[in-house]
Amino acid sequence: MPRLVRRADYFVGQFAAMASDCEVLIDTDNQALAQSICICAVSEVTRLEHKYSRYRDDNILYRINQGGRMEVDEETARLLDYAQQLHTLSDGLFDVTSGVLRRAWHFDGSDRLPSAEQVEALLPLIGWHKVYWHKPEIHLAAGMEIDFGGIGKEYAADRAVLAVNALLAEQTNHYDQQTPVLVNLGGDLAINGPRRNGAGWQVAFDNGDKQTEGFSLQQGGVATSGDSHRYLQKDGVRYSHVLDPRSGWPVKHAPATVTVVANSCTDAGMLSTLALLHGAEAEAFLRGQGVPYWVRTEC
What we know:
By secondary structure, the protein is an alpha+beta fold.
């Protein structure tokens, strides 16, 4: 169960999910309503974690990764369509089959790099073009895997907000009376609108200089991608956990972190991840997207 804490003029529901510290901020004075909203949001995040976690052997992702032709449900089909779209838009830089590289790479802050042979051996198992996907059927070749880690947390944040909105719709007939909510999954944010007083939610993040920057968010989502906590370092070279699926090696000259604001957390996460995959061209890529962003080049 989440822990509900009262702040000055709102409630915070605190919980852990998707290997992150998470929270739901609820702008209301009604504790019973805040509790219901919190439980609703956490239930949706938990549902998606159970459904798509690569660490479980009792969900649809596990069954897909066992190989063999199978049909998937509508939600999973939408995610697969989205993954296919991102693969096309990124010219293959974004690839949900590249998760198999974790068999060679372990980003624990050490200096233990895999050998070229270890990485090379995994490349035949990578490539969305090798996946048979004709909705609703999917088939993976032996040894291949799908991993939604690159989009899962942001998708869960958006879905949690939608679940809360549906709950509120059952309790009020007017959207204007909707309770403002912010879902924070380890720094990836989704909100359903401004606060009760009309002001935006205040968002702050580390700019890398032992200072914080902030902005006001009225609608949409925020996502941050980077290697602040997942990296390797050897002989003065820092190796990011952002891997190029074509080579199997970390993207060169990628920023330390990228933070993006977009219409949804899913969109923000897609743009921040694609920016990192563009390496030294990250800012040039973001400038062409027409969204607010912050790039930190060093940790």
